[in-house]
Amino acid sequence: METARQELQKVAKRIQPHIHRTPVLTSRLINEIAGAELFFKCENFQRMGAFKMRGATNAILNLSADKQKKGVVTHSSGNFAQALSLAAKSLNVPAYIVMPDSAPEVKKAAVRTYGGQITECPSTLKDREETANRIQEETGATFIHPSNDLDVILGQGTAALELLEDHPDLEILVSPVGGGGLIAGAALAAKYFGKDCKCIGGEPAEADDAWRSLKSGKIETNETANTIADGLKTQLGDQNFPIILEHVEEIIRVSEDDIKEALRLIWERMKIIVEPSSAVALAAVLKEKERFRNKKVGILISGGNVDFSRLPF
């Protein structure tokens, strides 16, 4: 699949003028606690505060001029709603965002700031999909899925690609797992740009559909997802799952306490604000220290969009 290697390079070049190349930070203290050398790729410093800006930008840039004129539509209550809105605004493309009426006001306000046109609907997936379909029919806009879209996956993979360019000798790359877009992109980057670099996922035990999917070989779902890592409640799709199945070594499940402990460590020791979903990758490393001992490990910090009215501390 040499094309995946070339595609990732092409995508990185294509989106480069529209995104930040985010810093890679280290912490001597966290290295001591983990017993490993950790390199944090800080996508909390990305435009709109999360890695999703990469995939959204790539997906829009890949549309024809005619399609761009008609706009893009997605359904999301979180970071992808903001990412698509800002990417579309930067490229002069209309963005129609379907959000559940239960979404926090702070998230709706952020989407409006970035120029997204919000349509609210009940929070079931069925309602979201029907509303997005209706907007598509009315406007001719192109639907872009937050994680189950190859252009989006390749865009997200550029975060791991940059990390491997800065630190080519990483032995393991750890990514949080939610909808599967980031870890699928990261796994491709690890395979084609790492030197025998393995890709491992971290996932909340309270929303462990990807862990179960990797075991059963088919896409599993969650009945409930009672986790503070609210960005990881979504499930895998038919575009990203085959990549995950083939290229992700393992997924490590972490408890809510594990996530809070890792989150506190990053806030207190690294002095950076990250959202709970971002702490899941570090939580996985700290939970299974033996596996990572003395290794060089890349950790994808997925975003920093924290709802300060609902802090876990």
From TrEMBL:
One Pfam assignment: PALP
Alphabetically ordered keywords of this record: Lyase, Pyridoxal phosphate
Native source species: Christiangramia oceanisediminis
Similarity comment: family membership: Belongs to the serine/threonine dehydratase family.
InterPro entries named in the record: TrpB-like_PALP, TrpB-like_PALP_sf
Molecular function via GO: ATP binding; L-serine ammonia-lyase activity; magnesium ion binding; pyridoxal phosphate binding; serine racemase activity; threonine racemase activity
PANTHER family linked to this entry: SERINE / THREONINE RACEMASE FAMILY MEMBER, SERINE RACEMASE
GO BP term (any one): D-serine biosynthetic process
Gene3D superfamilies: 3.40.50.1100
Protein name: Pyridoxal-phosphate dependent enzyme
Chain ranges of the Tryptophan synthase beta chain-like PALP domain: 15-303
Cofactor or coenzyme needed: pyridoxal 5'-phosphate
Domain of life: Bacteria
